[in-house]
């Protein structure tokens, strides 16, 4: 019996897997040998641009975040410096956004008096998340700054510290823990079951779901956009003549997904600040 060459089994297994993938994705090749490149998770881990292998490593997603942050600061500073009693279009648009967060989020959930302490944080969160989200549809950037877990975790940690500090400030540390972990009006023996659940809810699930929800929505949106426009390029440029009309359909789908992604970018910013306001409200209430 001939000796088995080392690594041959793994090589054969890889060839089998690639053959299966080609069968599942019939659009992967055409007569000219061109390929359709489907979106993948690798899009969210681009190669470094600067300082590779160091703690200062800088890649495309960090560049997108930097651009969004700088543009956001420039817009608000410019509008603030040129503010007029009778606002122009730009000032009016910004003021509408500020009023929306103040009235429909902060005051609606926290009440007018409590909202005064938190409206600045909630407004900053809303516009920051919106700016980082909307880069997913900006030509040349084409990915949300929140599509990688680091930034959503940072934003969730900010909300986490905010609602914990609000609760401790209102009740004191002992009072906050008691109000959070031992709901009133419950038989004492039920605390054996309820207290661990309340602990997980307050200290783990709330911040985790804030981060995961934000990231997951932006990841899904990016993958759908890349899929639609990659398919459009394939059908219009690389495919056989009979398949080119499908490029029109995928382009229309991509355009519709772009509009939907803009809506999701704003919706996720809104949901994030609404939940943050709700968590602050729950932490300062004397009875749950």
From TrEMBL:
Highest taxon above the source species: Bacteria
Membrane topology: Multi-pass membrane protein
Claim: Membrane is one of the keywords in the record: yes
Ranges that cross the membrane: 63-80, 119-138, 144-165, 186-205, 211-237, 249-282
Gene Ontology molecular function terms on file: proton-transporting ATP synthase activity, rotational mechanism
Protein name: ATP synthase subunit a
Originating organism: Cellulomonas composti
Gene: atpB
Annotated function: Key component of the proton channel; it plays a direct role in the translocation of protons across the membrane.
Keywords tagged on the record: ATP synthesis, Cell membrane, CF(0), Hydrogen ion transport, Ion transport, Membrane, Transmembrane, Transmembrane helix, Transport
InterPro entries assigned: ATP_synth_F0_asu, ATP_synth_F0_asu_AS, ATP_synth_F0_asu_bact/mt, F0_ATP_A_sf
Any one Gene Ontology cellular component term annotated for this protein: plasma membrane
Record's subcellular location: Cell membrane; Membrane
A Pfam cross-reference name: ATP-synt_A
NCBIfam families the record matches: ATP_synt_6_or_A
């Amino acid at each position: 019996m001939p000796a088995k060459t080392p690594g041959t089994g793994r090589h054969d297994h890889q060839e089998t897997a690639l053959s299966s993938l080609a069968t599942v994705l019939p659009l992967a090749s055409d007569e000219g040998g061109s390929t359709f490149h489907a979106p993948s998770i690798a899009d969210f881990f681009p190669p470094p641009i600067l300082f590779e292998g160091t703690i200062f490593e800088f890649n495309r997603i960090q560049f997108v975040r930097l651009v969004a942050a700088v543009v956001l600061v420039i817009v608000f500073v410019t509008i603030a410096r040129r503010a007029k009693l009778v606002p122009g279009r730009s000032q009016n648009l910004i003021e509408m956004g500020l009023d929306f967060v103040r009235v429909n989020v902060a005051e609606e959930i926290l009440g007018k008096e409590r909202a005064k302490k938190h409206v600045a944080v909630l407004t900053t969160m809303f516009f920051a998340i919106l700016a980082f989200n909307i880069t997913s549809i900006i030509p040349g950037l084409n990915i949300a700054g929140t599509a990688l877990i680091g930034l959503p975790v940072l934003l969730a940690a900010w909300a986490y510290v905010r609602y914990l500090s609000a609760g401790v400030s209102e009740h004191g540390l002992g009072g906050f823990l008691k109000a959070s972990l031992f709901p009133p009006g419950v038989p004492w023996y039920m605390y054996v079951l309820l207290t661990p659940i309340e602990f997980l809810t307050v200290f783990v699930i709330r911040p985790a779901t804030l981060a995961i929800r934000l990231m997951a929505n932006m990841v899904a949106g990016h993958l759908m956009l890349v899929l639609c426009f990659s398919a459009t390029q394939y059908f219009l440029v690389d495919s056989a003549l009979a398949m080119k009309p499908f490029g029109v359909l995928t382009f229309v789908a991509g355009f519709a997904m772009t509009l939907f992604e803009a809506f999701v970018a704003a919706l996720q910013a809104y949901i994030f600040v609404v939940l943050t306001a709700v968590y602050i409200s729950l932490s300062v209430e004397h009875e749950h």
